[in-house]
Amino acid sequence: MSGPAWELGLEVRTAAETHALAAALGAVLEPGDLLVLTGELGAGKTTFTQGLGEGLGVRSGIISPTFVLVRIHPNLPGGPRPGGPDLVHVDAYRLESAAEIDDIDLENTMDSAVTVVEWGRGRVEHLSDSRLEVELHRPRGGAAGVPAVTHPAGAPLAPADPSVLDFDTDDDDEPRSVVIRGFGPRWAQAPALPGVETLSKGGSLPGVETLPEPQPDPLTAPQTPERNS
Fold first, then answer.
1. Would you give the end-to-end CA distance of the chain in angstroms?
2. What sections of 119-221 are H helices per DSSP?
3. Among 43, 70, 80, 163, whose Cα sits 20 to 30 Å from the Cα of 141?
4. pTM, full prediction
5. What strands lie across the sheet with 208-209, from one edge to the other?
């Protein structure tokens, strides 16, 4: 498997900044795009997906699809991107193989929607020859005695210990590191994200660093997709 064409690392300090970064990314996504979203529990994956939904102009009300595996959020005709793609939101935490991903028939919506798969690494790469991988890490982790990951000025960000899962799923305003990697011909070059350059200059997104490769998150059954109607 070939490596990413590029890698972008950012630090966001609040849930609002996580949302804003994702909304900027959502504004440039097109039908057929696949995003693989990973991060320890409570890292902000739902907040990030809500931001993507805003940028795509889909129906609000995005929550984790853990108990139904798949939720479909339709594009709003009166929204900022009328006629744009729906958002298909998948939680693959309880799926153990690519075969189980195939059982939920994502191929039926891949060409017409943007598909976001949480915990999808090693499970969904066969669905498309191009993808974005997005990782979110909580610097402070979720266990007593685990030291905070600091970010000295000018130093690369270090990922949180992936063996530590934070079961507090409420997003808060702790800093997060966000890594975005592009794979395949669709993402041969990093996208220009509307507003991100301005935010970075203004201090809302304080600096861009190349991050070291984190270790894969642990993955732990198929159901009918739920439509957000």
1. 38
2. 196-202
3. 70
4. 0.73
5. 208-209, 6-12, 176-183, 131-137, 34-39, 113-118, 86-91, 70-73, 226-227
